[in-house]
Amino acid sequence: MNRQKRAVLTLKELTSKYSDFPRTGLKNWRYDWQLLFAIILSARSNDDQINKLTPKLFNKYSKLTSFANAGQEQIARDIKSSGFYNAKAKHLHQAAILILEQYEGKVPRKLNQLVTIPGVGRKTANVFQGVIYAKSEGIAVDTHVARMSRRLRLTKEKTAEKIEKDLMELFPRSKYYLINPILFWHGRTICQARKPKCEDCALNYFCPSSLI
Ligand code: SF4
Predict the structure, then answer these.
(1) Residue ID of nearest Cα to ligand 1 atom 2
(2) Helix (H, G, I), strand (E, B) or coil at 31
(3) What is the domain extent for residue 124?
C-alpha cells in the first residue's frame, strides 16, 4: 500500500473515531486570545499542567491589557508551574502589547500575521486556527503527530517543518485542521510512545509498524 492510500485510510478511520473529541486538550479559555496564550504556555509542557494553571491566571489577568501592564517578573511568578516560565512570561507580555498595538486588540486570523506574535510559531498558529476557525493553513506537528506520521510511514523526516511539508502533500487542504487533533488523541490513547496498543488500533490492518 502506498503512502497516499495510508493517509486516506488514516484520515477516514481516525475522523470517525475522534469526531466528538475536542480539537484541543486545553480548557478554561473563553476568548481567542486566552486560547492563544494557553497554547504558548503549553510549549514544552503538557495540557494537564496548563489546565491547572489557567483558571487562576485568567482570573487575575482577565484582559490583554492586564498582561501588557504587568511586569514580566510578576507574570513569571504566576506561571511558574508551566516550566520555562521566564521565556514564556516575556512572550505573554510582549504578545499582549503587540496584539493591542498592531492588531487593535484582536488576534489576527492569518498565519503570516500570527507568527509575528512573540511565542507563536507555525505549530501554535495552526493549532489556534484549527480550534477557532475549523480551518488551518498548515498542519500542526507536535510530538504525537511526528511519532505517528513516522510509524505510519507518512514521512521519514525528523524535523517538524519537513514533516509538516510531507503531510501537507498527503492530506486535502480542507482537512489540515483535523490532522493534529486526530493524531494527538490517537497518539495519546493508543499509539503511545513507549508501548503502542497495536491490538486495539483501528489502523493496524495497514500500519507498517503494527506489532500484530
Ligand atoms: S498499529 Fe500500532 S504502531 Fe501502528 S498506528 Fe496503531 S498503535 Fe501505532
Answers:
(1) 198
(2) coil
(3) 32-133
